[in-house]
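Hey, can you fold this one?
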Amino acid sequence: MMPLLFISTLIISLLATWRVRSAYAKYSEVPASSGMTGAEIAQRILDRSGVSDVSIQSIPGTLTDHYDPAHRRLMLSENNYHGTSVAALGVSAHECGHAIQHQQMYAPLQWRMAAVGVTNIASQVVMWLPLIGGLFMGMKPHLMVTIMALGWGVLMLFQLVTLPVEFDATARAKRILAETGALRPGAETDGMNRVLDAAALTYVAAFITSLVYFLWYLMRTLNDRR
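Sure. Predicted structure:
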């Protein structure tokens, strides 16, 4: 059963990753008619939204873009920071959405930020416990399965909270880009939508994966108690 679960969730994750990378690669080749770079549109969005304490910085890699709430930094991958493509503007606007959420104390973002510490611990637990607990600690199977269920439960809740955070940031990006006129209606806007919608699927895939593993370990825990 476990190999089947692993293969199924792996396929879901790989398909979601392939879709976002495919869409990003395609629309990274489509220039935005405004000629603005990702960094420029990000600065314009932050200024329009009254966010003055967030810096915009470049980071190596592809699709490494993220908002760092601890240091109030908008980290854009080099291609998006300097790029003038439809994809670059869409991704940059999405990350701005998180900065705006932070300023407005958007509740799901606050919950996710508060849960980062315990989620990191849970990630280490589900990764290493089956190996360390089973081979070196002689842990009882029932106890190990129960801890695994708790660990995956934490990850599942974290991914559940992440969904509205990401969907809201995407909605904000689409709305703001339309308001600024950085992308023309039609092909440019459609391309941006495809990139951001594909990216959203990766978070759905992550939630499904954590939910499946949580339910599997939970059912094993309940069955062991009978």
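The mean pLDDT is 92. Let me know if you want another pass with a different chain boundary.
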